[in-house]
Write a structure and sequence with these properties.
The protein has about 300 residues and is an alpha/beta fold. The chain has 2 domains: about 230 residues, P-loop containing nucleotide triphosphate hydrolases (Rossmann fold); about 60 residues, Orthogonal Bundle (Histone, subunit A). The chain contains 14 helices and 6 strands. It has a 6-stranded parallel sheet, sandwiched between helices. Helix 5 crosses helix 8 and helix 12 packs antiparallel against helix 13. About 0% of the residues have low confidence.
Length: about 300
């Protein structure tokens, strides 16, 4: 199989992926594919640190502003859309540069995934959880009917895994066990070069704190107020990092300073989770942006990219 070469830049939030990716894209005549689970939503710009109009004019971006905040979107949707984008770039002879902090999306796209994520359908989850409270034995009986192989592996009292398996079946029409077998046989058509960006902890945390202050100064509160006016039901997207904390302020449960401190803390914790996720991938070539100059990092990446061909 003639696999498509893909450059992938990953790292925690606020590490500086955007600026380095823009520079690399210009050098390599690449187009950027965002791998951020929140940048897909229109109108959620400041709180997701989305590339601005000027940056999007410098380098073409894909997988941002694709749906409304009240629409359902999950990893399966992302993979389906991003696959089409990669196919078009290949036909045009353009280098794809995937960058973002949502490790699940990147892994699912480039390595395949065991089964589509179902967490973006809260109504389905709520329905099964209600049934689990009322008639838990019926859920297990249903699993035995639609996915007997999974039912053999899952204890009848393990409601969390029973619900998860049923969610996947409802959303895909196929049992998890079948999807797992497909994954084992599947070979993805991509040949990725992974670049990981990190910083010393104090440096990263300082950048996170400054980013939160900058977001508020640039109008994050106004952005969230506008979203609340359009979507008073507060869809799942508004429970995201950077939005739920500001909602607490707008609805009077926190002062603005308290909301900012909460957002800084939550973002620092999120960055730690991101790093833990990415460090499991032993193919990533790591660069510490605290210690290494950008031009040196770019030179090293260029060498890696040439040898990757």
């Amino acid at each position: 199989m003639d696999k498509q070469l893909v450059l992938v830049v990953v790292g925690p939030t606020a590490v500086g992926k955007t600026e380095l990716s823009l520079s690399l894209a210009k050098d390599l005549n690449a187009e950027i594919i965002s791998a951020d689970s929140m940048q897909v939503y229109r109108g959620m710009d400041i709180g997701t640190a989305k590339a601005g109009i000027e940056e999007q004019q410098r380098v073409k971006h894909h997988m941002i502003d694709v749906i409304e905040p009240n629409q359902s979107f999950n990893v399966a949707d992302y993979v389906s859309s991003a696959e089409k984008t990669l196919h078009h770039l290949k036909k045009r002879g353009v280098t794809p540069l995937i960058t973002g902090g949502t490790g699940l999306y990147i892994d699912a796209l480039l390595d395949g995934f065991l089964f589509p994520d179902s967490t973006a359908d809260p109504e389905l989850r709520a329905r099964f959880q209600q049934q689990a409270e009322d008639k838990p034995h019926e859920l297990y009986a249903k699993l035995q009917k639609v996915d007997p192989n999974s039912a053999k592996r899952i204890h009848s009292n393990d409601l969390r895994r029973i619900i998860r398996a049923l969610e996947v079946y409802e959303r895909t029409g196929e049992p998890i066990s079948v999807l797992r077998m497909k994954k084992a046989k599947e070979e993805r058509p991509y040949n990725p070069l992974y670049i990981g960006l990190t910083r010393d902890r104090s440096d990263l945390y300082s950048r996170i704190n400054k980013r939160v202050d900058d977001m508020v100064a640039r109008g994050l509160v106004d952005e969230v107020e506008q979203l609340l006016r359009h979507y008073p039901e507060q869809p799942t997207a508004l429970q995201a990092l950077g939005y739920k904390e500001i909602v607490e302020y707008i609805e009077g449960r926190l002062s603005l300073d308290e909301a900012k401190e909460l957002l800084k803390r939550d973002t620092r914790r999120y960055a730690k989770r991101q790093l833990s996720w990415f460090r499991r991938n032993k193919r990533i070539n790591w660069f510490n942006r605290t210690d290494e100059k950008d031009h040196k990092i770019k030179e090293a990446i260029s060498v890696l990219w040439l040898s990757h061909h």
